[in-house]
């Protein structure tokens, strides 16, 4: 058999193995998390659950390609960087708008361009961007009216975008359901609404962990908090009890957790 | 010719089948092994294999020598002889593979113009990090300092940690999870030091740190479990403060630096080779200028050593950096100081909102995990510094110095159990308890990044960047740290931190 055929054959053989194998290729190199000697380490009370599900087929195929070709690796890291830059760009500070139209219009424009929704103080009308990012420009009429309710569900908002909302001193409701970029640092920055914020929804945010929930202590006026289905929380039962203890005036909603005691097999 | 070769090979195969050596062939009782042995005796020369490989080795050695003569400036060779030894040449040798050392390595590799353009070697004595200050620290980060340099370093480091996965992401590896607890520092001050706290607060605000001042009543309202007797003022960090897992940060820096091409070598730096020049100043004084030519790395548990020829040496050896500088005859006022950390269990203690509390008596404590565990400690007085030859924990110290203050400040902690304890070293700067960052004035290729006196871990990302700027670009571009240089030690101008503890 000639050489090109042989290599093609080998390639197919390996990809077949790839499909069969349950183990992700990324775990070939030894894991770096070696704990320090037990005699000196502080006892860690919680251990994160190990995820065992293999990545989807196309991810595994990409991983395989990266191991064979440097170009694919370069391309992947480049796309990773571009994605991050795009998100940072979308969350940039709207300084120009703020200078010309005031901070309230800038905040509203930022929210609408991220496909969110908002309601001004004293208005019953909501301004909501549709699925394709189109919105009603009539919000420009409400100059110097602060925002009261903001709905940022399933948007790319991150801690950098909070710069635009910094002046909103009468924001009462903030909904951040399912935002992929909302993390602990974002929650730590919410202290800017500490006097006004009454309702907060951070359910289904994949990057929130227990360390970030401790930062909600600064929100003194919080009356309703939704922390349902946060996959990053390691022991939800304890965390929710501690959260209720920390925010006694607040009604904490926490659905979507499995509280049943599992038997150790 | 080829047929003759084939015969030879066949004979060698036959030789391999039976456990007979060529020595037996010459013995008289050859016949009892059968005719195969007779065939064997046909081969009069020595086995072909030995010859071939012996020749090959000689040839390769000659080739290596030839390549070495032709390219004297390079230790490149097609065959690496021994990977356990450090390389013979490097551009930058970083002594100390703690979090500072790896951070510098990462930032240098990040800033190099050409991939592989700068050869960085990090020399670490103990790859298990069993006594390293990095992993034995409490892992806190705060912005409540009084020196602008320290405040800026903390803010920059927090900014780095926010985007840690964009900086330290390695392709096909898991993202870095620092396990950051955003709980803030709470400093308490009594009447005497309240005015210092107020000044510090103004400085911190002017540099953009999010800190708030609380009166005793506000403090009681916010944290009902604190006994506010004697407290005049408290300052509380709102953002970018808390604690994280030091081991994760160290490993993330190391993993990324290694993936960018930095090299690690295990061993201890025992000696330097340098050249001296005598320069005369305008006043006619004679000044000795030295330049390090090579660093001698002693391999652990072995007599083997390897000199690394290098252009730049970075002293990031932490608590042992004073000892390292002493081998060059430099007086660096950095010495190890032992600090204890006690793990407490108290089920009735404060909950999720527990800050990193620092009392004006010097006692600190913070939450550890969620199960009612806390860690606490304090700095002993100057005269009662413990012996630094080992890392033994003095439990008496907790009973006498920590617990009384702790229990009077937080009454809930009167009933507690010390479940474990550990000790770690501070790289304590006896001169002014602040970092020494920059070039040595009389050794013109030795840089220092040491003497952090307990806040090296939290400043490591920003210090690494500043050092890389100094090495690669010649001066500080992001944060000006020239006040923290070696010059202040020679001129006896301390940069003291005006803090309560």
UniProtKB/TrEMBL annotation, chain A:
Residues 27-50 have a biased composition (Low complexity). Residues 27-53 are annotated as: Disordered. SUPFAM superfamilies: RNI-like (SSF52047). InterPro entries: Leu-rich_rpt (IPR001611), LRR_dom_sf (IPR032675). Interacts with incompletely assembled mitochondrial NADH:ubiquinone oxidoreductase complex (complex I). Belongs to the ATP synthase subunit s family. Required for the assembly of the mitochondrial NADH:ubiquinone oxidoreductase complex (complex I). Involved in the assembly of the distal region of complex I. This is Distal membrane-arm assembly complex protein 2. It comes from Champsocephalus gunnari.
UniProtKB/TrEMBL annotation, chain B:
One of its GO terms (biological process) is mitochondrial respiratory chain complex I assembly. Signal peptide: none annotated. InterPro entries: FAD-dep_OxRdtase, FAD/NAD-bd_sf. It is a single-pass membrane protein. It is found in: Mitochondrion inner membrane. The keyword Ribosomal protein does not apply. Residues 91-470 form the FAD dependent oxidoreductase domain. The keyword Membrane applies. Required for the assembly of the mitochondrial membrane respiratory chain NADH dehydrogenase (Complex I). Involved in mid-late stages of complex I assembly. This is FAD-dependent oxidoreductase domain-containing protein 1. It comes from Champsocephalus gunnari (Mackerel icefish). The lineage of its organism: Eukaryota, Metazoa, Chordata, Craniata, Vertebrata.
């Amino acid at each position: 058999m000639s050489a090109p055929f042989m290599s093609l054959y080998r390639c197919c053989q390996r990809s077949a193995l790839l499909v069969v194998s349950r183990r992700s290729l990324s775990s070939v190199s030894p894991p770096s998390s070696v704990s320090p000697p037990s005699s000196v380490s502080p006892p860690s009370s919680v251990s994160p659950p190990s995820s065992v599900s293999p990545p989807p087929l196309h991810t595994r195929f990409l991983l395989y390609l990266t191991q064979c070709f440097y170009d694919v690796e370069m391309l992947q890291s480049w796309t990773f960087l571009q994605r991050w830059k795009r998100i940072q760009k979308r969350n940039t500070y709207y300084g120009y708008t703020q200078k010309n139209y005031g901070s309230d219009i800038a905040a509203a424009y930022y929210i609408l361009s991220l496909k969110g929704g908002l309601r001004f103080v004293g208005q019953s009308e909501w301004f909501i961007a549709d699925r394709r990012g189109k919105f009603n420009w009539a919000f420009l009429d409400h100059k110097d009216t602060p925002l009261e309710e903001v709905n940022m569900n399933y948007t790319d908002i991150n801690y950098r975008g909070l710069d635009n909302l910094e002046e909103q001193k009468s924001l009462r409701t903030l909904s951040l359901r399912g935002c992929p970029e909302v993390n602990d640092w974002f929650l730590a920055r919410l202290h800017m609404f500490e006097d006004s914020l009454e309702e907060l929804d951070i359910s289904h945010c994949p990057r929130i962990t227990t360390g970030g929930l401790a930062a909600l202590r600064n929100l003194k006026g919080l009356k309703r908090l939704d922390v349902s289905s946060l996959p990053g929380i390691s022991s939800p039962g304890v965390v929710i009890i501690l959260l209720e203890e920390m925010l006694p005036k607040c009604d904490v909603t926490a659905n979507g957790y499995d509280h049943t005691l599992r038997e150790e097999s | 010719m080829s047929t003759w070769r084939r015969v030879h090979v066949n004979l060698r195969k036959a030789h391999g089948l039976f456990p007979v050596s060529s020595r037996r062939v010459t013995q008289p009782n050859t016949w009892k092994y059968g005719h195969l042995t007779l065939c064997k005796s046909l081969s009069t020369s020595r086995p072909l294999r030995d010859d071939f490989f012996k020749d090959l080795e000689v040839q390769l050695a000659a080739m290596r020598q030839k390549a070495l003569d032709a390219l004297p400036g390079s230790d490149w060779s097609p065959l690496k002889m021994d990977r356990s030894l450090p390389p013979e040449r490097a551009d930058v040798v970083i002594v100390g593979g703690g979090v500072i050392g790896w951070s510098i390595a990462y930032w240098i590799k990040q800033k190099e113009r050409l991939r592989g353009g700068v050869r960085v070697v990090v020399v670490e004595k103990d790859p298990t990090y069993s006594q390293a200050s990095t992993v034995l620290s409490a892992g806190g980060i705060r912005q409540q300092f009084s020196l602008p340099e320290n405040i800026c370093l903390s803010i920059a480091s927090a900014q780095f940690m926010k985007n840690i996965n964009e900086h330290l992401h390695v392709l096909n590896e898991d993202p870095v999870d620092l396990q950051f607890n955003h709980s803030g520092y709470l400093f308490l001050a009594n009447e005497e030091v309240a005015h210092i706290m107020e000044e510090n607060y103004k400085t911190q605000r002017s540099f953009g740190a999010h800190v708030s001042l609380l009166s005793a009543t506000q403090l009681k309202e916010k944290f009902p479990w604190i006994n506010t007797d004697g407290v005049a003022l408290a300052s509380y960090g709102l953002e970018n403060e808390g604690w994280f897992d030091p081991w994760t940060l160290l490993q993330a820096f190391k993993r990324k630096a290694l993936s960018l091409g930095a090299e690690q070598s295990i061993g201890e730096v025992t000696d330097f080779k340098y050249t001296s020049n005598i320069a005369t100043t305008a006043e006619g004084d004679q000044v000795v200028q030295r330049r390090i030519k090579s660093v001698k790395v002693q391999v652990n548990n072995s007599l083997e050593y390897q000199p690394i020829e290098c252009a730049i040496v970075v002293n990031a050896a932490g608590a042992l950096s004073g000892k390292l500088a002493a081998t060059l005859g430099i007086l660096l006022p950095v010495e190890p100081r032992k600090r204890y950390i006690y793990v407490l269990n108290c089920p009735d203690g404060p909950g999720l909102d527990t800050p990193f509390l620092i009392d004006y008596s010097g006692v600190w404590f913070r939450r550890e995990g969620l199960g009612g565990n806390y860690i606490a400690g304090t700095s002993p007085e100057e005269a009662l510094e413990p012996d630094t030859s080992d890392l033994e924990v003095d439990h008496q110290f907790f009973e006498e110095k920590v617990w009384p203050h702790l229990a009077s400040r937080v009454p809930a902690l009167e009933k507690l159990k010390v479940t474990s304890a550990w000790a770690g070293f501070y790289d304590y700067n006896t001169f002014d308890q602040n970092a020494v960052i920059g070039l040595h004035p009389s050794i013109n290729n030795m840089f220092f990044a040491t003497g952090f006196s307990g806040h090296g871990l939290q400043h490591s990302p920003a210090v690494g960047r500043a050092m890389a700027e100094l090495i690669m670009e010649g001066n500080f571009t992001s944060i000006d740290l020239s006040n923290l240089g070696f010059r202040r030690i020679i001129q006896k101008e301390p940069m003291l931190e005006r803090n309560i503890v």
